[in-house]
Amino acid sequence: xxxPRTAQSPSCSVYGRAGAESDPGSRRRGRTLxxxxxxxxxxxxGCSTHGGNLAKKTAPRLADYQHADAxxxxxxxxxxxxxxxxxxxxxxxxGAKPFSRGDKATDKAAVEALAEDLDQxxxxxxxxxxxxxxxxxxGTDTSGKDGTIRGVFGKTSALGVHAVGWKAPTEEERSRxxxxxxxxxxxxxxxxxxxxxxxxxxxxxPVVKGWISEAEARQRYAHINHFERMLSETGTIxxxxxxxxxxxxxxxxxxxxxxxxxxxxKFAAGDIEVRKQWDDYQAAYQHAVAATGTRWAPWTIVPSDxxxxxxxxxxxAVKNALQNxxxxxxxxxxxxxxxxxx
Length: 342
Known about the structure:
Largest sheet: 6 strands, mixed
Distance between the termini: 67 Å
Number of helices: 12
Radius of gyration: 20 Å
Shape: globular
Order of helices and strands: HEHEHEHHEHHEHHHEHH
Strand content: 5-15%
Structural class: alpha/beta
Strand order of the largest sheet: 1-6-5-2-4-3
Helix content: 25-40%
CATH superfamily: P-loop containing nucleotide triphosphate hydrolases
């Protein structure tokens, strides 16, 4: 089933600079940071954030694949277990290629060009030092988190780009609040940090395993929303991508790992057990996105059965976000202009 595509105002940029209309305090905070802290301007422009109902249809937009309508409360009270009922993960086709430019070869060339652009923008971000970028890659086993890091960020400098692969918490980490370990790894000024899995695992897995109640899940969603808002208000751009694949595509990819001895290291016996809980995890993702897709940290649903399309869509979104920051290099030192190296 194809995703509904809606015509929106030309000002409905996916990751634009928000005006004061999106939040009463955003203009004040924007002056503190040098720009408005909210990077999603669709609300300020009166645009839909979950797929509109307009009769006129246009080419697909990233905004059609986003959810940013969650209205978090401090405690999670009033937040239903399934979050915003206007969000429906099932309406997104994992096999779709809405942003394809024609064929696989053309798309691959576009990804290469975007990766080069991201390298230049990362250098500018590092020199500017006013912002930080946190990229969250979330998805089931084999959804392509590692491949995204290689394909999208493979040309950027390791000095300013860091990837963090999250595993089950250690005993020390479990003795603290679940966001304690996460906060230590968020990007510093000028850096890009990529989370391969993330703090969302600390809700998804416990929910599916039955380790926490619905009330505890709502509380954790609330903690995440306010944690991400704090990051946003202090200069971090938060981009969250759900790599959405079909159950059949996962079967194919797992079988490829079994059939190729050089890929056995990627396979764990537990992968099969987790696969048996496919429907439970899809429901958990539905609830997590619905509850935590906010205007300061929206979720983007990425159809990911096609690896090339996945990389193309994410690379374009990251480039757009960085360009909208109006990055600049620090001013030159006039005293250096008169120096000559001999």
